[in-house]
Amino acid sequence: MPDLQTLFTASLLFGLVVTATFVVVFSDWRMALFALAAHYVLAAILVLDLLPYPLPLVRIISGILALVIFWVTFRQKSSAYRRAIQQAPNDAAREMAHARYRSGIFVAGFMFRLFALALAAMGILGIASSVSFLGLSSDILFGAVWLIAAGILVAIVSRDVLWLGLGMLMLTSGFTILETAMDPSLLLFGLLNISDLLLAVVVAHLSTLPVFGTGPRRRRGETE
User: Fold this and answer.
1) Domain range spanning residue 55?
2) Cα–Cα distance between 24 and 151 in angstroms, integer?
3) I need a surface site. Which of 1, 32, 154, 172 has the fewest CB within 10 A?
């Protein structure tokens, strides 16, 4: 029978798998932000034995602050979309507004994303259970590499700037776990937390920039 510590660690890793799956597979931004908030708590608990007590709490706070920036930006984008639809004078204007704000989050379909994520999980599970990397435990190695792989997958299949930022947050979270396990440097740990906030600010700014070329295409021979 597995002991309580093993079950607890397995539950943490399962939670990380589920939260990352919500971000990769589903396209609801509220669900994604809540999943990432839960992921920050689980990742902090995973490295609780590697850092002094206040530092995992700092990691959670910095992650939540970054997600608050994303929350505000998503809300502003949704409000701008509704205003654009309501103020559109004709179908062409509504089509342009839809193309600008709701042109689609992912370039790949639901089943492709789910299949790619399952392949990544099985591959990382095999590596973590059979390969010793710099003396890291299998649970730390799986949690870190899983978040890095899920973040990269989001970056590959997303066309939305904000969703790309969510993937980058997962990637930096996995890298933070890996760096903490290998060399718990307080300086680098602090820089990684600051980088999440800077990343959120930069992505939020990029999402507000105007998008060109989203208007309806004219047929050959048509004039303005």
Assistant:
1) 4-74+109-207
2) 8
3) 1
- How far is the C-alpha of 48 from the C-alpha of 80, rounded, in Å? 41
- Classify residue 87: in a domain, yes or no: no
For residue 50, tell me if it sits in a domain: yes
What's the domain count of the chain?
1
Q: Which two tokens stand for residue 147?
A: 């978040």
Q: Is 158 helix (H, G, I), strand (E, B) or coil?
A: strand
What are the pLDDT digits (tens) for 107-163?
778 888 888 888 888 888 887 777 666 677 888 888 889 999 999 998 888 888 888
- Residue that has been written with the tokens 């259970």 in this structure: 129
Contact 182, 38 (CB under 8 A): no
Angle of the 161-182 helix axis to the 186-207 helix axis, nearest 10: 180
Domain-embedded: residue 104:
no
Taking only the tens place, the pLDDT of each residue in 46-61 is: 888 788 878 889 899 9
Residue 129 lies in a domain: yes
Reduced to 3 states (helix: H, G, I; strand: E, B; else coil), residue 106 is strand
